[in-house]
TrEMBL record:
It comes from Mesorhizobium tamadayense. Pathway: Lipid metabolism. The lineage of its organism: Bacteria, Pseudomonadati, Pseudomonadota, Alphaproteobacteria, Hyphomicrobiales. One of its GO terms (biological process) is phosphatidic acid biosynthetic process. One of its GO terms (molecular function) is 1-acylglycerol-3-phosphate O-acyltransferase activity. Residues 67-186 form the Phospholipid/glycerol acyltransferase domain. This is 1-acyl-sn-glycerol-3-phosphate acyltransferase.
Length: 266
């Protein structure tokens, strides 16, 4: 009964809050009366509050520009976790655009949708990301190309770093900075999740969204950690494969450190 009540109240908060914030976000996008990310941060924080997800941060977003974030990917909640406290834009797979709520939220924060299976469109997509970085947008790349269970970092796909090469090739920048970021879900109700229970926070592959959302809403009180590594310059002579391996190693190192010694819940 308590869990059902929690789900009802959480969904009610999201619906009522969205009815207020969506028009304000559309207004900011059309008029630029205030920065677009102001409303987005409020929206992300509201969703995290409804879910019961607390965010702990180690390090900070790099100041260098153009900047590409290379992060691991565990769930759709990764977007809210990052978007709640930093000014970033996201790169997401194309089918997310049609998802209820998440698709709308993605469009309202100018997400770049990419079709990873269609190589013919990859050049245009990389060019769009490169242009956005050249304009000052910090783009978040979930470099595994899929979601994992939170226990391991999957191999980073070097092809997804094509936007950095494109930005340099098109003359938008002499170099692009790439910053590794680890997103780790560590505790539930203050207790370390452990390998067995950590997938509770994960949304993997073709798993249906609503059952996963109900579990997350019913449980609540989940802790997530975001660890920022040092940015690495990517220039004309840089190798995408070597950069992908380096970012993967750094994200894996930060992930394992967070899992081994999770921060206290508060």
């Amino acid at each position: 009964m308590i869990k059902k009540l929690r789900i009802f109240l959480a969904l009610g908060l999201v619906v009522v809050g969205s009815l207020v914030l969506v028009p304000l976000q559309i207004l900011s996008m059309k008029t630029r009366l205030w920065p677009e990310t102001v409303i987005l941060k409020i929206w992300h924080k509201m969703i995290l509050k409804a879910i019961g997800l607390r965010v702990h941060v180690k390090g900070a977003l790099a100041r260098e520009r153009p900047l590409l974030i290379a992060a691991n990917h565990i769930s759709w909640t990764d977007i809210m976790v990052l978007g709640s406290f930093v000014d970033v834009k996201f790169i997401a797979k194309a089918d997310m655009e049609g998802w209820p709520l998440i698709g709308m939220l993605s469009r309202l924060q100018r997400t770049v949708f990419i079709e990873r299976e269609r190589k013919r469109t990859s050049g245009d997509q990389a060019s769009e990301i490169a242009k956005r970085m050249a304009k000052g947008d910090v783009m978040v790349l979930f470099a595994e190309g899929s979601t994992g269970d939170g226990n391991l970092v999957l191999p980073f796909k070097s092809t997804l770093f094509g936007a950095a090469s494109m930005a340099i090739a098109e003359g938008a920048a002499d170099q692009v900075f790439i910053q590794p970021v680890a997103i780790v879900y560590t505790r539930v109700h203050g207790v370390p999740m452990g390998r067995r229970h950590r997938p509770m926070a994960a949304w993997i592959g073709d798993e249906d969204l609503m059952p996963h959302l109900k579990v997350l809403l019913a449980e609540g009180a989940v802790d997530a950690e975001v660890h920022f590594g040092d940015p690495v310059p990517f220039s004309k002579g840089s190798s995408r494969k070597e950069t992908a391996r380096l970012m993967e190693a750094k994200v894996r190192e930060m992930t394992q450190a967070a899992l081994a010694d999770p921060r206290p819940s508060r």
